[in-house]
Design brief:
Blueprint: H1 20-33, H2 39-42, H3 46-70, H4 74-96, H5 102-115, H6 118-121, H7 129-147, H8 167-180, H9 189-207, H10 211-231, H11 236-260, H12 270-284
């Protein structure tokens, strides 16, 4: 089917057998969905599984950063399995409905990888990672035209960014899109200026008791910080997650120290907790 895409053999073979363990996973999923299997699994649909897919993606995200911080990949291996199960689950439903199966999913992503890496599987010369990224959108557009699919009517280039993305990710994506057409600051200096401006506007809204404006100003400030992260090549969701984990660790230290002293955290003073917080920072430095 895709052999005409390649000038050499062995890269995309649709008759290539799946591995034994992967075949077993597919067989287990099909058994769960079959008559006499699991009632819960049998009644699931694409839509009913969508929330679980999102949850498993987030849990895998956390496991990745845990593995990066500790070197222990145990949870990462498990969470990747749970995420893979969601792909197999959806593909099993697709097969039952005669729409697609896991082979189609695998073949499709293999084809996509080959088409979008002409510097590996073809003759194009792309030396830098940024060159690859710059070429990516062009390749996607060419693929859409070649497929004959109806183009979605987009009134803005920002329409390509799903509105259901988490806030930090959406902010990062829309500012990247805008930057590609030149709507961007030249360096970080004016971004810091924007953060200072948004901070001052937030202070004024608080001081003047403009409750309706406070939420908007908080959003503007967060958006400006995301822009700074983008300019510094920092993924803001990952950065915030790391800080969240740091806070959890330091706050747990406070709780443990208070327990050791026979005190409940609810009855401890802010001064006492703040002192322990400073100790936790020294401990984790």
């Amino acid at each position: 089917m895709y052999s005409d895409l390649l000038d050499f053999d062995g890269i995309l073979d649709l008759n290539m057998p799946m591995s034994e363990k992967f075949d077993e996973l597919i067989a287990v999923m099909e058994r769960l969905r079959a008559p006499g299997g699991c009632p819960w699994d049998a009644e699931q649909t694409y839509a009913s599984l969508s929330q679980y897919l999102l949850e498993e993606a987030y849990e895998t995200f956390d496991a990745i950063h845990e593995a990066d911080a500790t070197g222990d990949v145990t949870n990462l291996k498990e969470e990747l399995g749970d995420l893979l199960l969601q792909v197999v689950f959806h593909s099993t439903i697709g097969k039952e409905r005669g729409e697609f199966d896991i082979e189609d999913v695998a073949a499709g992503v293999s084809q996509k990888l080959i088409l979008r890496h002409p510097h590996v599987f073809g003759d194009e010369k792309l030396e830098k990672a940024q060159d690859v990224l710059d070429n990516w959108d062009t390749l996607k557009a060419n693929e859409r035209k070649a497929s004959g699919k109806d183009e979605k009517v987009r009134e803005s280039i920002l329409d390509e960014v799903p509105v259901h993305f988490p806030g930090l990710l959406e902010a990062l994506k829309v500012t990247k899109k805008a930057a590609k057409v030149g709507f961007d600051w030249p360096d970080t200096a004016p971004v810091f200026g924007k953060i200072a401006e948004e901070t001052e506007e937030l202070k004024q809204a608080i001081e003047q008791g403009r409750a309706g404006d406070i939420s908007e100003e908080i959003g503007d400030l967060l958006f400006a910080v995301v822009n700074l992260a983008r300019h510094l090549d920092v993924e803001p969701e990952t950065a915030l997650k790391k800080t969240n984990r740091k806070f959890r660790s330091r706050f747990r230290f406070i709780e443990d120290e208070l327990k050791r002293r026979g005190k409940a955290i609810e009855s401890s003073s802010l001064e006492e907790m703040d002192s322990l917080w400073e100790k936790s920072k020294v401990r984790s430095a």
